[in-house]
Amino acid sequence: MDWGALHTILGGVNKHSTSIGKIWLTVLFIFRIMILVVAAERVWGDEQDDFVCNTLQPGCRNVCYDHFFPISHIRLWALQLIFVSTPALLVAMHVAYRRHEKKRQFRKGDQKCEFKDIEEIRKQRFRIEGSLWWTYTSSIFFRLIFEAVFMYAFYFMYDGFRMPRLMKCNAWPCPNTVDCFVSRPTEKTVFTIFMIAVSSICILLNVAELCYLLTKFFLRRSKKAGNLKQQPNHENKEETKQNEMNELISDSCQNTVIGFSS
Amino acid sequence: MSWVFLRDLLSGVNKYSTGIGRIWVAVVFMFCLLVYVAATENIWKHEHDESECNIKQPGCENVCVDHFFPVSHIRLWALQLIMVSTPLLLVVFHVAYRENREKHHNQKLYKNPGNIDGRLLCTYLISLILKTGLEIVFLVLFYKLYSGFKIPCLVKCDIKPCPNTVDCYISKPTEKMIFLYFLVATSCLCTILNLSELSYLVFKYSIKCYPKRHMKKQQ
Question: Fewer CB within a 10 Å sphere, N or C end of chain B?
């Protein structure tokens, strides 16, 4: 088992994401997960074996390694990727709940339901509005928080993003201050900076997506308020209902087109 | 080691679960299975080779590591994952039995074989109780085997053939402790979810049954 299962889950959510969300997912998989699995794990593979201290005192190397690397970079990145991907499950669950409700309506024979069969409900792409908007926006917000927390934790634990070549250690049982040498420090620094840069890009994408969703929300609200002012009383209600119906019909046509083209 | 079977089992059972059950599956998958495979396996990979005792006496290191870590944390974690997911098989088998029965009689016996009602509800409740019980058992086992949820960086050992009290240094104790706490937190979360699901199902079906009984009494 590898990260492929995560790819399957997130791929399902991709269908209902905005364009920026899709770019974020691509960046996540290509520049973070793939780099982590294919390259970074190899660089950090021999981290403790090749962590050498200038002493023969048994236990000194173990204690010094544990002191300078309370949690390995690789594990911290893996945890970060898992936490950052988890909010997408909220959206997946909400979509699954909506599909379940539509299937229930369809089975009851509700005339409001515009679908012809269950397969159409399964393939339907939901628009990000109403309660789904709130779920989606919360998931982006949580993603941002997790990214920021992990980046800060990284900076705090390792005093910056540089891997030094030499560390001086005097933890017991080391007899005095001992020189310890890290394996492949330059390569590790390069990968650390790369992963931090990609994390920053992901944060920017999330912020952009959040701004886009908020802008869309306020524009839609002002449009509805404008429509209500222009057309008063019950005529207005019927018109808006007709508009909604038209939107739904045009959406289902669009979905059919998308379905055929995919 | 392939966890594909467990992953497929979890996805398959998702269909017959309640909402809370699905959240439980997501938590087990993301925070237990994925963290185990992606991060934790490598920390404990060379734990024996990387542990060091301050002695040259052959066999002393082996004996000391064996005494302080009778079962490695990682193996216990893997056992826990497997045992906790196994009660779900009861539900899967019961649904398969229902579908088989419908096929055998060639008629629709149930509204929906995967619907949690009647005897399937009892099976589901039993699987929930077993899952909760096993989570608690493994948490207690972790606590008892390792005297709390701490991993010391130094253990003092005086078992034969060690000639006297010897210092043994464990590799990566802080990292192991962080992931151990993570495991304990996830187990507690899973236990809370199981208990919530149990109370939700009991409450839901007692509300359903109560009006029926009340009507029968009136008649």
Answer: C
* Cα–Cα–Cα angle for B171, B175, B178, rounded to 5 degrees: 140
Residue A179 bridge partners (DSSP): A168
pLDDT digits (tens, 9 = 90+) for A52-76: 888 888 889 889 999 999 988 888 9
Q: pLDDT tens-digit profile of A152-201?
A: 999 998 888 888 888 999 888 888 899 999 888 888 898 899 999 999 99
3-state secondary structure of A80: helix
Top pLDDT among A1 and B199 is at B199
- Cβ(A258)–Cβ(A125) under 8 Å? yes
Instruction: Tell me which residue in B37, B169, B172 faces A59 most closely, judged by beta carbons.
Output: B169
Q: ipTM strictly over 0.90?
A: no
Q: What is the pLDDT of residues B14-46, one digit of tens each?
A: 777 888 888 888 888 888 888 888 777 788 887
Q: What angle do CA B77, B83, B87 make, to 5 degrees?
A: 150
Give the span between the Cα atoms of A206 and B20, in whole angstroms: 28
- Are A79 and A147 in contact, with CB atoms under 8 Å apart? no
Q: Which two tokens mark A147?
A: 């990214």
C-alpha–C-alpha distance, residues B88 and B34, integer Å: 19
Contact B124, B98 (CB under 8 A): no
Evaluate the omega torsion of the peptide bond into residue A70 and state whether it is cis, within 30 degrees of 0: no
- What number does CATH give the domain B3-216? 1.20.1440.80
Query: Could you tell me the strand order of the sheet in which B52-53 lies?
Result: B52-53, B166-169, B154-157
Find where tokens 């790819």 sit.
A7
What's the token pair of residue A46?
Answer: 């021999």
Inter-chain CB proximity B175 and A72 less than 8 Å: yes
What's the mean pLDDT in A86-93?
86
**Taking the complete model, does pTM exceed 0.90, yes or no?**
no
Of B3, B23, B170, the CB nearest to A1: B3
**B42 neighbourhood in chain A, CB within 8 Å:** 41, 74-75
pLDDT digits (tens, 9 = 90+) for A207-259: 999 999 999 888 888 888 877 776 655 555 555 555 555 454 444 434 433 33
CA pair distance B179, B41, nearest whole angstrom: 11
Q: Residues 49..88 of B with a Cβ closer than 8 Å to A: which?
A: 50-55
Task: Retrieve residue A108's tokens.
Answer: 């009851």
Q: Which residue of B has its CA nearest to A49?
A: B50
